[in-house]
Every structure is written in structure tokens, then in C-alpha cells.
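Sequence in, structure out.
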Amino acid sequence: MPKRVLSVLFLLVTAWWMTPTSAGDLERQRNSFLAAEKALDGGASREFRRLSKELRDYPLYPYLEYRALSKRIDRADNGDIRSFLETHADTPLADIMRNRWLDRLARRQRWSDYLAFYRPTSDITRRCHQLHALIATGKTAQAFTEVPEIWLYGRSRPSACDPVFAAWERAGLRTDGMVWQRVEKAIDAGETRLADYLARSLSKPDRAWVKQWIALFKSPDRAGELERFREAHPYREAMLAFAVRRKARWDGLEALALWQQVKPRYPFSTEQINE
């Protein structure tokens, strides 16, 4: 059983304990609940329906309904799911069922239905499925406005985002400036392989600069080698400031010495100086 469903079950049981009901009624309801579960697991649909009708006021009744719908979700339609969501909207099980249905709709590429059931979420996979759904249903401009927020991240994104990113890139909306922003985020997060991958879309000189940055991640002392950084670049100072910060993680005194060495040589911004 998924952890989130277990958590919901715990909350429902807690509510049951707090319900002012006689000991005899509690025992009867508990036995009916267990019998209903047994009937459901055994495929005794008629017996399950009979028992579940007796449990409509029982705090664990929504869980029974959830389990029953889950067992036949392969045969369920939008109406079945919508009815469950409306009936149990005040329980966390509604969100769990909605997410299960959304994942199923995405696997089957039923994008119009996906948009009908989608609700704003922090889950990146479902957000990317929503953007995919927008693109597939002709709402491309709306989808593309939301892509940078998800793409500009220092770690890899779920595979669900790949077709969305690909469509956005084909539309010419990904700029070199955005790539550099993500390279910086990736290196800050220690994701040097992602940074190297992103660099493939840059010019040959810029790819060399990304390699310099990755080298600084591995060996911050290279920041003190003047010849390596004699040429100007929009991200040169950011790279050098990063090297000093990284050095400071394990040796503050050496980091200070490195900073005193590089600070007079390059036009660092006020923000970089104060970091």
C-alpha cells in the first residue's frame, strides 16, 4: 500500500476513534468493515455493495470506496472518477485518486481529459504532462510561457519533460543566455555532467569556458592561474567567485588567500564581492 494512502488511513482511523460512538456500534462497524474488505478482495461484488451501504457513516468508508474504484480503475471512465472526487472532495483520498487518474491519462495520451482533471501542483512530472497536454491541444503559446521556470533548474528533470523541452527548443525559444543560466545552476548543484551536456548547444569557445568552470569545480586553485582567465567572458568573474566559495567549504584561510589573489585582477560585481 502506498505510504500516502497509509497516512490517510491513519487520519481516518484517528477520526473514528474521536467519534462519539458506543463500544457495541464500534465493534459492529469494525467487523462490517473487515468483512467488506474481504468481500472486495474475494471478488464478491454483491456482498461488498451490501456491506458498504451499512458503512456510509463510518469514517473509513471513503477508503473502502477508494479501494473499490482502484480495483476497477482499468474499466473506470471520467464519470466514475469525477463522482468519487466530488463525493470525497473533503478527504485526502480525492487528491490521491486524481493523481492516479492523471498518470493513467498521461500514459494513454488522453490530453484533453488530462487538462480537465489537472489541478496546479508542485509535482514536476505532472506539470510537464500538463504542458504536453497544452501543446497537444493547440495551446502551445500558453505552454511555452511556463517552460523556462521548469527548465532553468540545476538538476535533470523527469523524462515527462523531454517532449515539452524539445518542442520549446524547436520553436527557437531557448537562448544561449538561458543555457548559461542553467549551466551556472548545474555547477552550483554539483551536476557537472549536466553542465557538460548543456554546453553541447553552445559555440565552441563557450564550450571551452564551460570546461574551465567544471575544472574549477574539481580544482578551485586553478582560479589563481592568470593565463587561464586572461580573456574576458561574461561569466568569467562568476566562475572565479564560484571557485573561491568552493574552496572556502573546506579551507577558509586558503580561500581568503585565493580571493586576495584574484580580486585585484578582475572586474567583479558588487554582488560577487559581497558574497
